[in-house]
Amino acid sequence: MTIVNDPLNAKLGDRERLSYIASQAADARLNVELETEGMTLNIGPQHPATHGTLRIIARLDGEQVVWAEPSCGYMHRGYEKLTEVRTFPQVTTLINRIDWLGSFANEVPFILAAEKLMGVEAPPRAQWIRTILFELSRIANVSLFLGDLGVQMGAVTPVFFAFRDREYVLDLIESATGGRFHPNFDRIGGLKDDLPAGWIQETKQVMRKMRSFCDEIESLLFGNEIFQSRTRGIGVIPRDIALQYGLSGANLRASGVDWDLRRDQDSPLAWKNADWKVFTHPDGDSFARCWVRLQETREATKIVDQLLDGIPSGPVMAKVPKIIKVPEGEAWVSTENPLGEMGYYVVSRGDVGPFRVKIRSASFNNISVVPWVLRGVYVPDIITILASLYFILGDIDR
Amino acid sequence: MSWLLAFEVPYWGQSVFRVLGGLVAVLLPAGTIVYVFLFKMMSFMQSRLGPMEAGPYGSLQLVAEVGKWLQKEDIVPANADRKIFKMAPVVVLLSTFLLVAVVPFGPDAWFTNFETGIFYALAVSSVSVLGILMAGWASANKYSLLGGLRAAGQLIAYELPMVLAVIGVVIQAGTMNLQEIVVAQNAGSIFGFDGLGNPYIITQFVGFVVFMIAIQAELTQTPFDMPIAESELVSGYMTEYSGFRFLIFFIGEFATAGVFAMIASTLFLGGWGVPFAWFGWESVDQVDNWMNFAGPVIVITKMMLITFLVMWARFSYPRFREDQLQRFAWKVLIPISLVNIMVTAVFKVAL
Amino acid sequence: MSQLSQAEAPTPTVSDTLRETIATEVCGALGDAVVESMVKPGDDIWMRLRTDAWRSSMITLRESLGFDYFCFLSAIDWLPSPFGRGEDDPTEPAPERDTTVRPGYCGGATRMQVFVRLVSSTKHVGVTLKVDVPDDAMTIDSISNVYAGANWHERETHEMFGISFAGHPDLRNMYLPTDFEGHPLRKDFPLLARMVKPWPGIVDVEPMPGGDAGDES
Questions:
Q1: Domains in chain A, CATH or no CATH each
Q2: Do residues C66 and C96 lie in contact, with contact meaning Cβ atoms separated by under 8 Å?
Q3: C72 and A73: CB-CB below 8 Å?
Q4: Tell me: the pLDDT tens digits for C74-110?
Q5: What is the pTM of this model?
């Protein structure tokens, strides 16, 4: 790094200078049209609405956004570089921290990619347990989203319900894997352990609770007129924009694209053994995104219930060598994570560690649409749109 | 208070009593509201216990909080307009004290007995807007500025439906004196039935609903808390305040809630009185002296009921957006209250 | 709730013929822009495109071949790291390593390759497209006006690999400080934490449950 001595440069980095120029341009445009003076508002990096350190630079005309841009990087941890110096089993402990609310789901695609390169197939029981834990982490993740949604719009009560009920799911994950947040449970060739005794009955009870939680949130928030007036028709992302920006998960399905990787992709995981629905919504607005997520949580509980009934017996670990060397090759595996499509492009050179891992995280693409969608909205809508797009900072910055 | 006057208290002594009474009338409801509603009711609604450590059942939590705030540094931002920044919370709290001055607590227990009491109350309640604007402007913070401007827009917009809702009451009571409004309610009767008196919540129900919505907005409670809006504007006009200045804002918020609830109970629930028919009283002169002691208790009970409604809505609803909020005031509340005034006037003349 | 479409339950199994048909279709439409292509049955399609035909091929892929979903864009530095896996003892002289550039699937003539993944939202089949980045110019055409989502990915690739994208609206840094020197994901950029202190993780290779001890392939 160089130390810049120029006082102006020291004060304003390139990024700030460009923002300033852009804001001046916005000013000039506004002044010609309306003879008003604009204002640049920095939302973040320390701000209650960004639950993390995302910064949004918004150029305002009164309360209307003329131009807005997220500025990320406050949490960049360089995982792509770090994977290159770690062995394959060591990588899972890193990628757990990408989307920290649904961390088990982060491990699965990477392990699947490594298994694909090695030609190893985990035993069926392991695949089923993986799927169950995957869906549990989806429930834990999205239930927090549903509670957080209320807080972003000023309703303080739902978030406490969300935290209360999410705890049951986290307890399940903890009792099965040993970690509430970062299980690091998935192994190349299977799982670390089998399920503990009594876990299946417990899980079924919790799934009933989660379904009633979904009903509660639906009647408390989604049926509320104020909530609807705050979200309906706000932040509309049309189908082709959603596809171009690579939105995924509920954000894409809320724009009317009927595409769920769990259903539309060949995967060794057990989703094909359960009977469930993919929900889409034609509107593409904030309400649609929230609604699709709510329905998905409910479907996830049903998937878990069905998989628990039909879980096959057998070992949870295939025979793999003690020191794992992955044969040379390239593999891309992505799964439908709580936030959207999460994928790993793994390049191996026959070594114990990967040569290059490209982490395709859902939030990075989901948030890249923000400059497009925030144009012309009001300041309060920035918050609802961001909340409905649902990002997790670790998932943007990696 | 007549029995006190029997002791021939000099004028300065009466003033001291009034000031002390005013302090009690502002701070006691504020403390009660914070503990009962903000700490406990909100917690129970959210399936948690709330503060439990300080004092029995967490009852001294508020003392602990006040102690905490008093210890904090009084920070003034470097670019702030220092004088105005320091003055703003005082102005906000001042409007609360001015408001409580006209609330009657008993047949003789009042601080002042203005002939145009309700007019005065509506006028001084707007002083807080000034304080909020001052805070928003002087903080030299964009969030504060946005919050202050939103507050000004909102408070002015909701002042109108509030005034219009009160006009219905004034027409029905035929007076603007709050004491006489209370008497008119308790001495009155609904079509000859005087068991309940004539609380205007029944005959002026539309006015009551409009008034409640308007005070919800005046108090900047959710769903009308755009000026504070934690998730957008951090804390709105209060963002830069810390220590005891924040405490003053905080007390101001809940004290104003209490005082507005007292005014609402005076206007619509019969204030300090019980229906006069219960004891065979005909006018305010016949009311027994013990009502001077029962009166404050009755007012505070009714105030708690009204505040419960305010807080219930606050903890359950998401908030409106700025434009939706304005639209609601101008397109819904004001027409409704205008129609209410017309209907009241027609009935007043016809009956 | 307004209308919702319910998806059909059966999973369409993607057969190899599907991928092969798509690969031939793409090769036919792009003509000589495709340098090399490869289909792994049941896995994926890889293709290497000519550098000068990069942007035009993207337009063809999007407009006429139905690859409307932009998944990601990134780059690979094919130079094997001169620092190994960062496990060298800093007190010893660094060992000699073979640093000849060896490309991956579909070959390649340069050290840096940009690769992009596009998916068809109707057929649910994706392709991974690679393109060589000239070693001297380190510049390829930007596709951010073909796929708007590529904007941020190109910015990230620019700061991490030092590859420029001609025609990109603003190649500011996304993650790194403005005055950061170097391109961290290049293989010759040392991971400083590993340079200063030897990595302790080398000793504890975790035994895998179920795997026999000492079973090494």
A1: 79-366 (1.10.645.10)
A2: no
A3: no
A4: 998 888 887 777 766 666 777 777 777 788 787 878 8
A5: 0.82
